[in-house]
Amino acid sequence: VRDPASRIRCRVAVRARVGITASRSAMATAAALLASVSWLGGAFAAVLTGILATLVATHVMRQSHQRAKEEKSRFARRWEESLYARMEDPNAPLPTLHPGELLLFLPLWLRIIGYVRGESETLLIAAARELDIGALTLKLLASRITWKRSLAIRAAGALRLKEAMPALQQEIRRRDPASAEIAIVALLRIDPDAAINTLRAQLWAFVWSPSFVARLLEPAGPRAVSLLAAELANAPARRIPRLLRVIGALANTDALPILRECLVRNRSSEEVAIALEALGRFGSADDRDTARGKLGDDDALVRQHAAICLGHIGTPDDRSEEHTSELQSHHDLVCRL
User: Fold this and answer.
1) In sequence order, what DSSP letters do the residues of 31-44 get, joined into one string?
2) What is the pTM for the complete model shown?
3) pLDDT, tens digit, for every residue of 41-61?
4) Which residue stretches of the chain are H helix?
5) Is 257 exposed, middle or buried (0-12, 13-18, 19+ CB in 10 A)?
6) pLDDT classification of 152: cutoffs 50, 70, 90
C-alpha cells in the first residue's frame, strides 16, 4: 500500500487486533488464576472444616468418657458401701441393680469377695443371690465375647453355681488354655469330684507346666493325689516323668507313698531323680536312708538328686567327712550336701 493514509489505517488495524488478542489472553489468564484461587480456597475451607469437626468430636468424646468415668466411680462407691455394710449387717438394704449394670457389678463383687473368707464370703454370696446374679451369670456364659464369658466363669465359681457346670465343662473342652484354666478353677470350687473327672479327660490336652497343673489341682487336696496315682498306674512310660513332676510340685504329703514306691521299683534314672527331688521338698526323716543309699548309684543324675534331697532333709551328720569321703571325686555333690 503506497498511500500514506492507507498505510496508517493498516497499522491501526493491526495494532487493534494485537491489542484485542492480548486482552483476551490476559482475561483468560486472570480467569485461570481466579479459578485456582477459588479451588485453593475451597480446599482450605474443607480442611479447616475437617479440623474443626475433629476437635469438636474429640471434645465430645472426652466429655462422654469423663461422664462415664464419673458414673462408674459413683456406682463403685455406692455398691462398695452397700456390700461392706451387708458384711457387717445381714439385713442391710441393697440398691437396685439394673440388668445393664451387671458388667459393672461383677468385677467389683469379684474383687471384694476375693479378699474375704468365712462368714463375710457367705454373706456376699447371699447378697449376690438376692440380686439374682446367678441367672444373669448363666446368660452371660453363653456370650460369644471372650472377656464377658471369662467374667461369668469367675462369677459362677465364686457363687458355687451348680447350674453353670455344663457350661464350664464345655468351656474346658474348647481347649483354650486361658479360658480352660479359669473354668477348671471355677469347677473345683463348685464340685471337686466333677472337676477331677473333667480334668482327667483333659489332662494331656494342654501344654501346661507341671507347677501350673499342680496349682490347679491344689484345691482338690487328696482327690488330686488319687487322680495322679490312677494316672500314674496306667500312663505310658513317656508320660510318667511329667506326672511325677506334677506330684512333686503339688507337695502334698499324701503323695509320699507314690514317690517312695517309685524309688523301690525298677524305674528309669530320670524318674528316680524326679522322685528324689520331690522328697527333698516335702519328705520326712524316713526318707533319709533311701536318699543316702542313692548317693552310690551308678547314674550321675541319681547321685546328684540324692545329694540335693539330703541337702534339704538330711542331718548335719550327712555333711560330715565320714559320709562325704566317698563323694570327694564328685565335688558338686559335696557342695550340694
Assistant:
1) HHHHHHHHHHHHHH
2) 0.64
3) 666 667 777 777 777 778 777
4) 4-88, 102-113, 119-130, 133-141, 146-159, 165-173, 177-190, 192-202, 210-217, 222-234, 240-250, 256-264, 269-282, 288-293, 300-313, 321-324, 331-336
5) exposed
6) very high
